[in-house]
């Protein structure tokens, strides 16, 4: 406690020296807390039922695909993954439930998309329950009932149907319409099937082959996308929290290193007056604990607000259902606080290690002169980190799935940046080679400063390099994937028109139309592995998949075509039998007809349209039409099926890390400039004008930005080349020149601003006063 008290006293007297570390730790705590909140929501989040709120229990099909794996030693484990489409029940289950002793009522339901609405049969209104406020229930095929939020009155028309009733209720997160029972069954497109059955009163067991949903489980059944969102939040929250923590440690180590560097004379004096290395380490560690606690508490509190904001953004982007509420518990703030304090303590101990070990006289000597010698631990750790980064880059170049490649990409860029930071003094020496004689007296002073203080320069280069490397990697990994997918889609689409949601029969009757291909988008699973898929009525006049082996001649029921990536993963080739699970859980065994090269543009799996159309929630799909010289209404450009699944969500989430690195840049440069108040005052006393001093600082900053831009770009290019080689087959990343120029311009503007503001503040003090007070 004595050390903590002494540390507290020094903090009170040297607030400015610890301000940068405080800001860095506060931001780190907020970022880690927000990411952990997303992770916890994925693990523990629940969805309240809306449509099924009035039914005590719901019986439905299993909405998971399950697989039992052998763990060895006779033990097995069953794993489950959510289905992409809703699994339906045979209608005979409804009869079985009605014959169950104690059951008084069974309400069958069918669910289907109807434009922006969710359609049902009126027979299932009792599940909520819905009641008629105006008009009556639908009875004929052309009649429809809308909910209270639709803004339509009895007698209005909605997509060709006459509104005959308006309900007294509306659901919070979905627009609901009802049809007559017979019409709803026809529109649903699953003859002899129902999507669910509500049972009154509750039963304890579901019939064989079905699943009983009660309580909050009814919400998970009603909102199947919520289950997929939970899985996404788990992976995204975990990856972001880990990446944020690594970035935070890197930034905090740099900030503490700079802070201790500026206090080096003070710590050296402590050694000179008989303070032992252990006492110095304990003092620095105590200061770090105090700063960590002071920054971690408000940072963790701010992280709760940041988590709420992130959740609202994900909801607005459609990545998370609105009714999947964010879980707010003490765990994320506490974990963020502990992580922050631990990071601060570790960073301070690492930064003060050398100063505490050397002799007092040497410490005073090093405080007076920045020799720029590379410590022994850096000479050992640097090559080891470079070797690790090279190994990780090679691993990344072999990954061809986005789920595996994305986190490894971030980790590779980070490891390269850490290696560069450890070897930073060597990079700082290279900055001395930048010619500045053309800049006159200010250039002369800037060049001398760059040569005299390589360690201080290295502390500034680290966050700048980190920001450039991470920003370029995050932005251009997305553009690389998107450009490759678009290129393949454009090369393989031979159709003259792409018509979403159009009727194939009507289009085929138009004069001049030569070929029409129906296309549905879905996903399938081989085992538990998920693959993007399309279902088509294949016609080479509208689509060219880039066949590399096998043939699409006679492609139809019983056939499947695979991309080269999928075929390699699954060890399948033309003529082999492929066992897969369709989007709604229906198993299928198909013969591999062909292997194609344009998997990024069209999906990894191509299935027959007739096989899939009864196993998707929305069978509307898209038409590819070959009709040269014919104008068709509603045509749209064909979109690639892959790239990032949610690029906007990825940009928002990873954008926080970019923002954090930008704050670190401002923080570090402001600290570095403020710490040179005495030096600037001496220059003023020696006759240097205020304008010359500011110009000297700008030149130094521009040299640092130049070195960091080159280093960060090299790190990003190496990482992106490995990413592209694995994911797209090309090691040449797609980097839009304008976007890259904006990144460098933003880094330059940020660095100049973070240097100019504290410099102007320091120059406001009279030189003599500044020299005497520091």
UniProtKB/TrEMBL annotation:
The annotated topology with respect to the bilayer is: Multi-pass membrane protein
Q: Transmembrane residues, as ranges?
A: 17-39, 233-258, 288-310, 330-348, 379-399, 405-428, 456-477, 651-670, 701-726, 738-757
Q: Name one GO cellular component term.
A: plasma membrane
Q: What is its main location?
A: membrane
- Which residue spans adopt a coiled-coil conformation according to this UniProt entry? none
Q: Does the keyword Chloroplast apply?
A: no
Q: Which residues form the signal peptide?
A: none
What sequence ranges are listed for the domain ABC3 transporter permease C-terminal? 240-357, 652-765
The alphabetized UniProt keywords are: Cell membrane, Membrane, Transmembrane, Transmembrane helix
Pfam annotation, one family: FtsX
Which GO terms label this protein's molecular function in UniProt? transmembrane transporter activity
Q: Does the keyword Transmembrane helix apply?
A: yes
* Cellular compartments annotated: Cell membrane
Q: Which family does it belong to?
A: Belongs to the ABC-4 integral membrane protein family.
What name does UniProt use for this protein?
Putative ABC transport system permease protein
Say which species the protein is native to.
Nonomuraea rubra
């Amino acid at each position: 406690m004595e050390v903590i008290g002494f540390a507290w006293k020094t903090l009170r007297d040297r607030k400015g020296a610890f301000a940068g570390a405080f800001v860095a730790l506060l931001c780190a705590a907020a970022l880690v807390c927000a990411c952990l909140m997303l992770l916890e929501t994925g693990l523990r989040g629940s969805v309240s039922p809306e449509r099924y709120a009035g039914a005590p229990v719901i019986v439905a099909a299993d909405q998971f695909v399950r697989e039992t794996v052998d763990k060895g030693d006779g033990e097995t484990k069953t794993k489950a993954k959510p289905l992409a489409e809703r699994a339906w029940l045979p209608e005979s289950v409804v009869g079985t439930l009605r014959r169950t002793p104690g059951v008084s009522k069974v309400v069958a339901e069918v669910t289907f998309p109807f434009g922006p609405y969710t359609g049902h049969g009126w027979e299932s209104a009792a599940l909520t329950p819905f009641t008629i406020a105006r008009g009556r229930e639908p009875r004929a095929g052309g009649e429809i009932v809308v909910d209270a939020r639709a803004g339509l009155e009895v007698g209005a028309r909605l997509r060709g149907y006459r509104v005959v009733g308006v309900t007294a209720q509306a659901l919070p997160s979905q627009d609901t319409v009802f049809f007559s029972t017979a019409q709803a069954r026809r529109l649903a497109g699953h003859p002899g099937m129902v999507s669910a059955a509500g049972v009154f009163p509750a039963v304890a067991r579901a019939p064989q082959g079905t699943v009983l949903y009660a309580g909050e489980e009814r919400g998970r059944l009603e909102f199947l996308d919520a289950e997929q969102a939970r899985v996404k939040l788990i992976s995204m929250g975990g990856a972001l929290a880990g990446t944020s923590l690594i970035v935070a440690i890197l930034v905090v180590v740099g900030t503490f290193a700079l802070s201790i560097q500026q206090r080096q004379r003070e710590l050296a004096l402590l050694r000179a007056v008989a303070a032992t290395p252990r006492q110095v380490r304990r003092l620095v560690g105590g200061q770090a604990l105090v700063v960590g606690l002071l920054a971690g508490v408000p940072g963790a509190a701010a992280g709760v607000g940041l988590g709420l904001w992130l959740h609202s953004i994900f909801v607005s982007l459609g990545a998370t259902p609105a009714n999947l509420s964010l879980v707010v518990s003490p765990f994320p703030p506490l974990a963020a606080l502990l992580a922050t304090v631990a990071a601060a303590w570790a960073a301070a101990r690492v930064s003060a290690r050398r100063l505490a070990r050397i002799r007092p006289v040497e410490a005073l000597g090093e405080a007076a002169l920045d020799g720029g010698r590379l410590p022994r631990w850096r000479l050992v750790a640097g090559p080891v980190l470079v070797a690790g980064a090279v190994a990780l880059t090679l691993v990344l170049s072999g990954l061809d799935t986005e789920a595996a490649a994305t986190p490894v990409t971030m980790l590779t860029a980070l490891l390269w940046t850490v290696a560069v930071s450890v070897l930073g003094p060597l990079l700082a020496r290279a900055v001395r080679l930048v010619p500045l004689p053309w800049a006159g007296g200010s250039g002369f002073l800037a060049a001398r400063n760059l040569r005299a203080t390589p360690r201080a320069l290295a502390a500034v280069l680290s966050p700048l390099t980190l920001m450039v490397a991470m920003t370029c990697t995050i932005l251009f990994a997305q553009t690389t994937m998107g450009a490759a997918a678009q290129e393949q889609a454009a090369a393989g689409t031979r159709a003259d028109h792409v018509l979403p949601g159009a009727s194939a029969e009507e289009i085929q009757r138009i004069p001049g139309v030569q070929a029409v291909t129906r296309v549905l988008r879905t996903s399938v699973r081989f085992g538990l592995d998920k693959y993007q898929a399309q279902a088509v009525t294949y016609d080479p006049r509208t689509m060219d998949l880039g066949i590399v082996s096998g043939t699409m001649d006679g492609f139809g029921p019983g056939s499947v075509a695979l991309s080269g990536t999928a075929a390699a993963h699954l060890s399948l080739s033309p003529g082999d039998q492929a066992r897969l699970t369709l989007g709604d859980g229906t198993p299928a065994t198909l013969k591999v007809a062909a292997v194609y090269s344009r998997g990024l543009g069209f999906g990894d799996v191509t299935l027959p349209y007739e096989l899939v159309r009864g196993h998707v929630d929305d069978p509307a799909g898209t038409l590819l039409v070959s009709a040269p010289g014919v104008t068709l209404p509603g045509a749209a450009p064909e979109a690639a099926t892959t790239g990032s699944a949610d690029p906007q969500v990825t940009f928002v989430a990873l954008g926080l890390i970019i923002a954090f690195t930008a704050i670190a840049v401002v923080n570090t440069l402001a600290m570095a400039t403020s710490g040179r108040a005495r030096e600037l005052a001496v220059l003023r006393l020696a006759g240097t004008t205020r304008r010359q001093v500011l110009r000297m600082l700008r030149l130094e900053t521009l040299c640092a930005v130049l070195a960091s831009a080159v280093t960060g770009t090299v790190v990003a290019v190496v990482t992106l080349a490995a990413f592209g080689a694995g994911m797209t087959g090309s090691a040449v990343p797609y980097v839009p020149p304008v976007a890259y120029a904006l990144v460098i311009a933003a880094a330059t503007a940020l660095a100049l601003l973070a240097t100019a503001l504290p410099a102007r503040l320091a120059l406001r003090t009279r030189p003599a006063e500044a020299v005497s007070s520091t």
